[in-house]
Amino acid sequence: MNSDSIKSMRAIHQFAESLGKAIDAKDAYTESHSLEVAEISRILALSLGLGTEPADIIHIAGHLHDIGKIGVPDHLLNKRGSLNEEERLLVRRHPQIGAAILSPVQEIAAAGICEMVLYHHERYDGQGYPLGLKGDDIPLGARIIAAADSLSAMTGSRSYRLPKGFDAALNEILRCSGTQFDPHVVNALSANADRVRNILFSLNRRKKHERKFSDRIENQQRRSSSEAQRRFRREFRVGIAQSDS
Ligand SMILES: [Fe+2]
Ligand SMILES: [Fe+2]
Q1: Which of 6, 102, 12 minimizes the C-alpha distance to 53?
Q2: Contact 108, 102 (CB under 8 A)
Q3: pLDDT band, residue 217 (cuts 50/70/90)
Q4: Which uninterrupted H or E stretch holds 240?
Q5: Which has the closest alpha carbon to 203: 244, 159, 151?
Q6: Structure pTM?
Q7: Has residue 227 got a pLDDT over 90?
Q8: Which of 87, 29, 33 is nearest to 63 (CA)?
Q9: Which of 35, 113, 191, 206 could form a disulfide with 108 if both were Cys (CB 3.0 to 4.6 A apart)?
Q10: Cα 226 to ligand 1 centre (Å)
Q11: What is the CATH number for 140?
């Protein structure tokens, strides 16, 4: 990579992180999910022997993996009950929508990020979507993101369930090694379990801190708006009294 392409990859990374935050902001329960997937994916890629450049590309794809949810109605993403067949098909379109959204950005397309986004819900045994690709036919980045995505989703709350503990989530992924997930990726995850657990823990702490900060701002806004309302009512009453006299 020359210095120009390093600079543009850096800009793409920053923009990917910002788009990931935008998609996570659609649902209060998924805040920082894309960031978690990006961070876990980079650890797994490096552990599987990839160099820093391909690991960084997979990290960027992690930030962007669910960007296609922009094209899925919010009420389906936040629905508490189970989805009917038609709704499920709509939600399952998000990988194609995401790949289509990203395809005009040449560097992203050339780095293979569109394919990683398109195939992040494929399963190692061929039972995933959108194409039902199997084994090594699924790009490695997408196989890595699939495991990182599941771990982050299981350890995070959703509108319809409480979070699983880290060990329970990891055990679930180990149980699905060779069926849902690439066994090499699962081995890398279990070899890096402590690091991944620490990353999730520190992101969670940051999340709580940010939530406290935004709650404080909201409270201040609420207080100042109720003061403004009281002032308005007072002035309104004075105005009425003056016009009566
Ligand atoms: Fe990042
Ligand atoms: Fe997804």
Answers
A1: 6
A2: yes
A3: low
A4: helix 193-244
A5: 151
A6: 0.84
A7: no
A8: 33
A9: 113
A10: 40
A11: 1.10.3210.10
| Separation of alpha carbons 133 and 142, rounded Å | 11
Q: What is the chain's mean pLDDT, rounded? A: 89
Q: Which bound ligand lies closest to the C-alpha atom of 37?
A: 1
pLDDT digits (tens, 9 = 90+) for 123-144: 999 999 999 999 999 999 999 9
Expressed in angstroms and rounded, the spacing between residue 144 Cα and the centre of ligand 2 is 13
CA distance 162 to 111: 36
What is the 35 CA–ligand 1 centroid distance (Å)? 7
Note the pLDDT tens digit of each residue in 162-186: 788 999 999 999 999 999 999 999 9
Cα–Cα distance list, 83 to 12, 87, 94, 185, 205 (Å): 34, 6, 15, 30, 32
**How far away, in angstroms, is 38 Cα from ligand 1 center?**
6
Q: Which of 61, 67, 68, 70 is nearest to 116 (CA)?
A: 61
Structure tokens at 150: 């599941």
Number of domains forming the structure of the chain = 1
In eight-state DSSP terms, residue 181 is B
State which residues form the domain around 82. Answer: 3-244
> What is the spatial distance between Cα 147 and Cα 185, in angstroms, rounded to a whole number?
7
Non-local (6+) Cβ contacts of 17 within 8 A are 35, 38, 63
Alpha-carbon gap, residue 131 to 111, rounded angstroms? 21
